[in-house]
Amino acid sequence: MCPKLTTGKCRRNSEELERRDQSVSTAKKAPQRQCIGCGEMKNKRDLIRILKGADDSITIDATGRKNGRGAYLCPSMECFKRAVKGKGLERSFKTAIPKEVYENLEKEMERLGRQE
Ligand SMILES: [Zn+2]
User: Fold this and answer.
1) How far is the CA of 67 from the centre of ligand 1 (A)?
2) Distance, CA 73 to ligand 1 centroid (Å)?
3) 15, 55, 62, 113: which has the fewest Cβ within 10 Å?
4) What pLDDT is attached to residue 23?
5) Could you tell me the distance, in angstroms and rounded to a whole number, from the CA of residue 96 to the centre of ligand 1?
6) In whole angstroms, what is the distance from residue 71 CA to residue 88 CA?
7) How far is the centre of ligand 1, averaged over its atoms, from the C-alpha of 84 (Å)?
8) Where are the beta strands (DSSP E) in the chain?
9) pLDDT at residue 2 above 60?
10) How far is the CA of 101 from the centre of ligand 1 (A)?
11) Confidence class for position 28, pLDDT limits 50, 70, 90
12) Topology of domain 32-114, CATH
């Protein structure tokens, strides 16, 4: 049973938990980042990178290779919503986030969620 997530995401969540257990022993190799939604430290690879570019545009950086200031978020709407509520992005980027940016990010999150 998975108390928090719907059945579709349940399986992936247990995989994440397994991976996190592994990353404890390989902590030095795997860079950890904090999710701005739930505040948990996770393997960088398992998080979505949100990027603030030089032109102050805020996008999801799927490649993780673009330059700019990044914030990290679990690939779940749950964490996204918590980040919005808790102003995690504002705090990470030290700037006000326009409503349209959140709307775009939400669409992106939904799209990423559907790919699984
Ligand atoms: Zn999270």
Assistant:
1) 23
2) 6
3) 55
4) 53
5) 21
6) 9
7) 12
8) 32-34, 41-43, 48-52, 58-61, 69-73
9) no
10) 19
11) low
12) Hypothetical Cytosolic Protein; Chain: A; (3.30.1230)
pLDDT score, position 19: 63
Residue 14 half-sphere exposure toward CB, CA atoms < 13 A: 8
Q: How far is the CA of 56 from the centre of ligand 1 (A)?
A: 24
Residue 108 has phi, psi (to 5 degrees) of -60, -45
- Of the listed ranges 3-12, 38-47, 64-73, the least confidently predicted one is 3-12
pLDDT for res 43: 94
Give tens-digit pLDDT for 46-104: 999 999 988 888 998 877 778 889 999 999 999 999 999 999 999 999 999 999 999 99
Distance 55 CA to ligand 1 centre (A): 27
CA–CA distances in Å: residue 31 to residues 4, 9, 23, 46, 58: 26, 24, 9, 10, 23
Q: 93 CA distance to ligand 1 centroid (A)? A: 17
User: Would you kindly state where each structural domain of the chain is located, as residue ranges?
Assistant: 32-114
